[in-house]
Amino acid sequence: MKRLIPLFVFAIILAACGGGEEATASEAPGTTPAVAEAKDIDAKKIWKIRCIACHGLYGDMGTNGAANLQEATSSLDYRINIITNGSENGVMTAFGEILDADEIEAMAKYTMSFNENLK
Questions:
Q1: Where are the beta strands (DSSP E) in the chain?
Q2: 17-23+36-118: CATH, from 3.30.420.10, 3.90.1150.10, 1.10.760.10, 1.10.490.10
Q3: Which of 13, 77, 114, 115 could potentially form a cystine with 69 if both were Cys, beta carbons 3.0 to 4.6 Å apart?
């Protein structure tokens, strides 16, 4: 039984970072980053479903080694690549087979809204 506990914990972490149900989190009015503009794609909803478990509501949680997006200064192309293919160190899940190209671009733009210095 004790051998199953680490496996269970690992499965929960893996499921949380790879997607699943929409996370519930309270939002303070006026503090949510602007939603990316791309063909009526609700980047905020995708963020809550796919990304919030590791990056947090405002991109600064850093669970499981996730990047702090409030401090990140990477380009839009770099972010599109990371979202599509995952990170080189394997921490970031690849979403290229889960999200379409427009959704990935919307998400990359949405992540840039967390860093006020990039606006």
A1: none
A2: 1.10.760.10
A3: 114
N-to-C CA span, the chain: 51
The kind and range of the H/E element at 6 are helix 4-18
Contact status, residue 56 vs residue 62, Cβ threshold 8 Å: yes
Q: How far apart are CA 83 and CA 87, in angstroms?
A: 8
Q: Six-digit token pair at 86? A: 């995952």
Structural domain spans, the chain: 17-23+36-118
Alpha carbons 5 and 67: distance in angstroms, whole number: 27
Sign of the CA dihedral running 100, 60, 67, 34? positive
